[in-house]
Design goal:
With 462 residues, the chain is mostly helical. It contains 14 helices and two strands, in the order E-H-H-H-H-H-H-E-H-H-H-H-H-H-H-H.
Length: 462
């Protein structure tokens, strides 16, 4: 009797139920709690609440991302070799959601001790949270998009719904966190209490995602596909996937934009606009526009493909950022720019994970190796390293300019750095994004690739 192997069915384009879509979106909301906390508030908490040097924090985050890369590769191999009744990715989402939430809370329980002990604690808890638990939870969640369906339309819809929930999470947290903390004294205990509540939401979101989704389309293949493929061979197959590089770059830039904008706006509002609570207002305006834009994407995608719609949106975002550069202190124009940027970045935010998922089929077509786990882990490795470098770079720019989080008034050089990062840093990222989108032509090739794969798989070949 021929041995059975799980591969993807050409008929896997079945309609995904709304239970799957909403559950996947709720998982995005929960896990994005972690992203918003670490990308928007963590550095501010360490520097302005705990009084830790921004240069030290930036260095810790950079070094930690190098460790983080190895765990992503290991986790990608584990996902590829996981075979349970729940699938490849879903069991890891279940097993890691609660530990991930606990490790997120630990980031804020820095002891009131010597500077060295506090730095050691930050290093250990940051690596526990990001390098270990973040990888073990987030990578399976990201991989799940490629396992829900093979159909481009279904993937795009799932990615769109996920981003609606993720952006709603970002909208809520950025709107309320700083105002709540400042209202109750901006002390460490206030932050611990609030992050504790957020961590519960994180865990619940992950559990609902596991419960409400299903990995689809398992068929019986012939022994032609029944060959063992080493992790190194899978990794090399990713390196031959030209569209993976483009999709990976777009994900990195989209993440870096969000991180740079969300981190810089807090310092910008506190020191340039003299009101830290304005950061919540500006982020609320931009994220509201982002949610609206993502809601519109399913309709707009009837008239343009993912790449072209993302290009149009990126051009809009560049125009919005130009307003910030021209009028850096006009609150009216800053809010207008936030609306334009939010609408502009919506198409890429809504489709970037679908773009990355599509490279799985291209990689299988190109190399006869299908490796969702490695494709997403390799992308996550690069994204984390680049984001770590980005965080470190911003911290070093602030530090070199003389920024001191314990001071109410910053030096002229520090103010120049704060304004430069907020105004020009995001502009550079947006221009680079447009360049990568111009290079992405996978959607034109995708129908013929799928046709070839269906013929192969009908003969039991990958």
């Amino acid at each position: 009797m021929e041995k059975e192997q799980k591969i993807y069915d050409p008929g896997a384009a079945e309609q995904i139920s709304w239970r799957d879509k909403i559950s996947y979106g709720i998982g995005g909301f929960g896990f994005n709690v972690w992203y918003v906390i670490t990308a928007t508030f963590l550095t501010y908490f360490y520097t302005n609440v705990m009084g830790i040097s921004i240069a030290a924090i930036g260095t810790i985050m950079l070094v930690s991302k190098l460790f983080d890369g190895w765990t992503d590769i290991i986790m990608g191999v584990i996902i590829n070799r996981t075979n349970t009744k729940w699938g490849k990715a879903r069991p890891w989402i279940l097993w890691t959601s609660i530990p991930f939430a606990i490790s997120t809370l630990l980031l804020f329980t820095v002891p009131n001790s010597t500077n060295m002990i506090r730095l050691v604690y930050v290093f250990i808890t940051y690596n526990l949270n990001s390098t270990i638990m973040g990888t073990a939870a987030f990578l399976p969640f990201n991989t799940l998009n490629s396992l829900l369906s093979r159909d481009q339309g279904q993937r795009t819809m799932c990615s769109n719904i996920r981003q609606i929930f993720c952006t709603a999470c970002q909208l809520i947290l950025t709107a309320i966190t700083i105002p709540i903390c400042t209202r109750f004294g901006n002390t460490q205990m206030v932050w611990i209490t609030l992050i504790g509540i957020y961590s519960v939401v994180l865990a619940i979101g992950g559990i609902i995602c596991f419960w409400g989704t299903r990995e689809r389309a398992v068929v019986v293949a012939t022994p032609k596909t029944e060959r063992k493929i080493s992790a190194w061979a899978e990794f090399k197959s990713v390196l031959k996937n030209k569209y993976w590089y483009i999709a990976f770059g777009l994900w990195v830039l989209q993440t870096f934009y969000s991180m740079c904008n969300n981190t810089a706006v807090t310092y910008y509002c506190q020191y340039k606009l003299d009101n830290v609570n304005l950061s919540a207002s500006l982020l609320t305006v931009e994220n509201t526009a982002l949610v609206v834009g993502i809601f519109l994407c399913p309709v707009l995608l009837r008239f343009a493909n993912k790449r072209n719609l993302a290009m149009i949106g990126t051009i809009m975002a560049i125009a919005g950022q130009a307003i910030v550069i021209v009028a850096p202190t006009s609150l009216t124009l800053l809010n207008a720019a936030a609306v334009i940027r939010g609408l502009g970045i919506a198409p890429l935010s809504a489709t970037v994970f679908a773009m990355l998922s599509d490279t799985v089929e291209y990689g299988q077509w190109k190399t006869h190796i299908r490796s969702e786990g490695i494709i997403f882990s390799a992308a996550t490795v690069g994204m984390k390293i680049v984001s770590g470098v980005g965080t470190w770079l911003i911290a070093m720019i602030y530090s070199a300019a003389g920024f001191d989080g314990t001071l109410e008034i910053q030096s002229a050089s520090a103010m120049t750095a704060i304004q430069g990062v907020y105004c020009f840093g995001t502009m550079i990222i947006l221009v680079a994004t447009l360049g990568l989108l111009l290079m992405n032509r996978l959607e034109k090739e995708y129908p013929s690739i799928i046709a070839d794969l269906e013929k192969r798989e009908a003969n039991g070949e990958l």
